[in-house]
Design brief:
- The chain is an alpha/beta fold.
- The protein has one domain: Trimethylamine methyltransferase-like (TIM Barrel), CATH 3.20.20.480.
- It has 18 helices and 19 strands.
- The strands form 5 sheets. The chain has a 7-stranded mixed beta sheet with strand order 1-7-17-16-14-12-10.
- Helix 1 crosses helix 10 and helix 10 packs parallel to helix 11.
- The longest helix has 22 residues.
- The radius of gyration is 25 Å and the shape is globular.
- The N terminus is likely disordered.
């Protein structure tokens, strides 16, 4: 084999290389590069889907919101008002699945933050919904408004988090004005895709108004694309409560995205087997998805599941288990059966940021990746099965997510990467490549640079104080918060937002509905 002409131009060792450039990281529009795994044969997945349809038609689902029951009934579902049970025909569900969008273009506060949810795309969120926060300096505590702000800043800092999640509940902020606090913070401190709770129409409408005001959106522009999202949890087994059903309706009517997530724990709120639990989860997700499409055909909706097992000795939720992994794989197969973007989850049941926490989160994460999840929530920071979010764990988990994002970029093997002239020709046998032209050009950019991992040898590590990863993570999050700068925003729009909040607060706010 002869060397191609492009390789015959020789550069002498020590020849001046192109100046190194800074590393340009963009983790905002990721695609899942991993081969997908299957836990069940295709015919069994089809049978699970058919069983879920049969369940909704014969056994039904309890729907507590009268308006939702009327919407189902208008479409031809059989409704028993005395028992609040809704029996949804297979044809109704199948029509709803057909009208649900297979691709959802999500509009963030800045165009560079936009992303698309579809099979094959990959989006990360940190842990969500915890009543407590913890860190090594202040310990475990009920989460405060300051904790909420700090977690929001950390989420904004890491490019690998494309969506804002409700990481902790600021329990020192009264519930009738809490949505003003969290929405104002999202509008002022980040330009990423925001989250709003579904806790009754008044709160949801307030949030929609605040977002439109802060981002200068007309009613038509707001409805034209999803600018925010909510999480809808069914009450397993087979119950859709009032605020969740109302949230599905409110978000669908206004063209905003619902991520439907039955939380099914095998052996507790779901059958003890992976197949049984996922079949129940699938049925509940289909029922909720159907409500969005009956309300507004084509409304953006993301299929989802969060299925793991309980510890049968204590009844406590367990995460990052083999059953959790298998459940994610099965959910991915069902999502692909429908053709819809879908949400899965990692997470940990550990009480602290230790080896167990790392093992559980990563095992759950890889289950999501191998399953082809579109959105992975609870990917960083989550402890105690969702009771706590840890500052240090968020930093440690973000390191892993960054490395996953690096893999999404894919490796290249073109002429420049092979480096016949710039590396192989320049180095003599038994030499080294530290000073080759290729190395000098790429040493700042070729490898991922960790923010908390330490690659020093033992001697150097000991000389630096023998600081372990957990304590290094404390320094990382404190540095990020100390140096944080909010994205530039229109001061007139933020002033209008503050005026709206002041007026609505004076009017009494909006208590959550139950």
């Amino acid at each position: 084999m002869t060397v191609p002409e492009r390789g015959r131009r020789r550069r002498g060792r020590g020849a001046e290389a192109a100046p190194p450039v800074s590393r340009d990281v963009n983790y905002r529009q990721l695609r899942n590069p991993f081969p997908l795994m299957e836990v069940f044969p295709a015919d069994q997945i089809a049978d699970m889907h058919e069983t879920a349809l049969h369940l909704l038609q014969e056994l039904g689902i309890k729907v507590l919101l009268p308006e939702a029951r009327r919407i189902y009934a208008k479409a031809g579902a059989r409704v028993d008002e005395d028992s609040e049970m809704v029996f949804i025909g297979c044809d109704i569900v199948e029509a709803a699945v057909a009208s649900a969008p297979k691709s959802i273009a999500c509009r963030a506060g800045a165009r560079r933050r936009d992303f698309t949810l579809e099979l094959g795309s990959l989006v990360f969120q940190p842990g969500a919904g915890a009543p407590n926060a913890t860190d090594l300096e202040r310990g475990r505590r009920p989460a405060t408004g300051q904790d909420y702000l700090d977690f929001l800043k950390l989420t904004h800092h890491f490019d690998v988090f494309q969506m804002i999640s409700p990481q902790v509940e600021p329990q020192d902020v009264p519930t009738h004005v809490r949505h003003y606090f969290t929405t104002q913070a999202q509008m002022e401190l980040t330009d990423k895709f925001p989250f709003f709770f579904s806790r009754g129409t008044p709160q949801v409408m307030d949030c929609f108004e605040m977002l439109s005001t802060a981002r200068g959106l007309s009613d038509d522009a707001f409805r034209a694309n999803p600018h925010c999202y909510t999480i809808i949890n069914t009450n397993s087994p087979r119950t859709l409560d009032i605020p969740m059903a109302q949230g599905l309706i409110d978000f669908a009517r206004h063209g905003q995205m619902s991520i439907i997530t039955p939380f099914t724990l095998m052996g507790a709120m779901a059958p003890i087997t992976v197949a049984g639990a996922i079949t129940l989860s699938h049925a509940e997700a289909l029922a909720a998805l159907t409500l969005t499409q009956l309300t507004n055909p084509g409304a953006p909706v993301c299929y989802g599941t969060f299925t793991s097992n309980v510890d049968m000795k204590s009844g406590a939720p367990a995460f990052g288990t083999p059953s959790h992994f298998q459940a994610s794989l099965a959910a991915g197969q069902l999502a692909r059966h429908l053709g819809l973007p879908w949400r899965s989850a990692a997470g940990s049941a550990s009480a602290t940021n230790d080896v167990q926490a790392a093992n559980e989160n990563q095992f759950g994460l890889w289950g999501c990746l191998m399953a082809g999840a579109t959105v992975i929530i609870h990917s960083a920071g989550w402890l105690e099965g969702g009771l706590t979010v840890s500052f240090e764990k968020l930093i440690c988990d973000a390191e892993v997510l960054n490395m996953v994002a690096e893999l999404c970029a894919g490796a290249q093997a073109g002429t420049d990467e092979i480096g016949f002239d710039s590396a192989l020709r320049e180095v003599e046998p038994s030499g080294h490549f530290f000073a080759s032209s290729q190395t000098m050009q790429r040493y700042n950019t070729e490898f991922y640079q960790p923010h908390v991992h330490d690659y020093a040898n033992f001697g150097t590590w000991a000389e630096r104080g023998s600081v372990d990863t957990n304590h290094r993570a404390t320094g990382v999050w404190k540095s990020i918060l100390n140096d944080f700068k909010a994205p530039a925003g229109g001061s007139d729009k933020l002033d209008a937002l503050q005026d709206f909040i002041a007026r609505r607060t004076a009017e009494g706010g909006a208590p959550p509905e139950s």
